[in-house]
Design a protein that fits this description.
This protein has 275 residues and is an alpha/beta fold. It has one domain: TIM Barrel. It is built from 10 helices and 10 strands. The strands form 2 sheets. An 8-stranded parallel β-sheet has the order 3-4-5-6-7-8-9-10. A two-stranded antiparallel sheet has the order 1-2. α1 crosses α2, α1 runs parallel beside α9 and α7 packs across α8. The longest helix has 16 residues. Bound molecules: NADP nicotinamide-adenine-dinucleotide phosphate. The site of NADP nicotinamide-adenine-dinucleotide phosphate (NAP) has 28 residues, from α9. NADP nicotinamide-adenine-dinucleotide phosphate binds next to α9.
């Protein structure tokens, strides 16, 4: 699996990792088993960045990820989780991270993100709490999710001893808005983590024009349109992604998508506003 630098940390992170939204409560034991098999398969293919959040399945996703990751040497994995940002006190924010660690059976996270901005809790307060977690050794790196460029700038300036390494935002061939901010992220050396890289529904319904362009590239490289969509994202400097799947064939296909680095011309062709 191809890896790139995360932010300006010197740490290498696989360009394609694994998402876990949908690992909800009240599913069958077989469903959880299947998801665990897929996560193991993904890890064996180098998709060692696993993205979860306390809010996914109200803790269930972290529990299932925890059952998988305890079978590996800790330093072979890169585990990210996210704070549900409706805590108002410094200590309650820190306690939320401790609870995530408990569910994940981990001593530390690799990355802890604020899941989205909350207008009632200041960005500065969130950054102070996350920075304290780094100082305590509870997370190696910190970042944000669903922040605008302006909010990222506020977060960066609020940090005293730590760098912001990523903003995790919705980005795909069908949702390109945040990708237009790439020059900012590259200048600041902040990684853009693309979530819902397959439009959340595996590109089941996309506009005819986009379908045509994806199919053209897919035929050229003998891959699927979903693989093209992933390759397209991670062919861009400063972008990594975290597709979600519960299907073994899909996790294998997603890992293979990292091998195709599209040339500039094809990257350009898949932009919505290209002719
Ligand atoms: N920060 C945030 O606010 C936020 C929001 C949304 C998502 N996320 C993160 O991003 C991750 C990914 O986003 P997502 O879950 O919204 O959706 P996604 O990864 O864009 O799409 C998932 C869908 O694509 C299908 N799929 C996956 N690989 C495929 C392949 N190779 N060929 C065909 N279909 C394929 C899956 O079906 P199968 O399962 O059957 O393969 C599923 O229906 C989440 O799981 C979560 O970790 C973060």
């Amino acid at each position: 699996m191809r890896a790139v630098e995360l932010g300006k940390t010197g740490e290498k992170i696989p360009v394609i990792g694994q998402g876990t939204w949908g690992l909800s409560r009240w599913k069958s034991a077989e469903y959880y088993q299947q998801w665990k098999r897929v996560l193991h398969q993904g890890i064996s293919l180098g998709m060692t960045h696993i993205d979860t959040a306390e809010v996914y399945g109200m803790g269930m996703a972290e529990r299932i990820v925890g059952e998988v990751v305890k079978e590996y040497p800790r330093d072979e994995l890169f585990i990210a989780s996210k704070l549900f940002p409706f805590r108002f006190f410094h200590n309650s924010i820190k306690k939320a991270a401790y609870k995530s660690l408990e569910r994940l059976h981990l001593d530390y996270l690799d990355l802890y993100l604020v899941h989205w901005p909350n207008p009632v809790v200041s960005i500065e307060k969130h950054m102070r709490a996350l920075e304290a977690l780094v100082e305590e050794g509870k997370t190696r790196f910190i970042g944000v999710s669903n922040y605008s460029v302006n909010q990222v700038e506020i977060a960066m300036h609020a940090l005293k001893k730590t760098e912001l390494v990523t903003n995790q935002v919705k980005a795909s061939v069908t949702a390109q808005k945040h990708l237009k901010d790439l020059p900012f992220y590259r200048k600041e050396k902040i990684t853009l983590t693309a979530y819902s890289p397959l439009g959340h529904r595996g590109l089941a319904t996309i506009a005819d024009e986009q379908q045509k362009k994806l199919t053209l590239v897919a035929e050229k490289y003998n891959v699927t349109i979903q693989q093209v969509a992933l390759s397209w994202l991670v062919s861009m400097e400063g972008v990594i992604t975290i597709p979600k799947t519960v299907t073994i064939d899909h996790v294998k296909a997603n890992a293979r998508a990292a091998e195709t680095v599209l040339p500039t011309e094809e990257i350009r062709m898949l932009w919505e506003d290209s002719q």
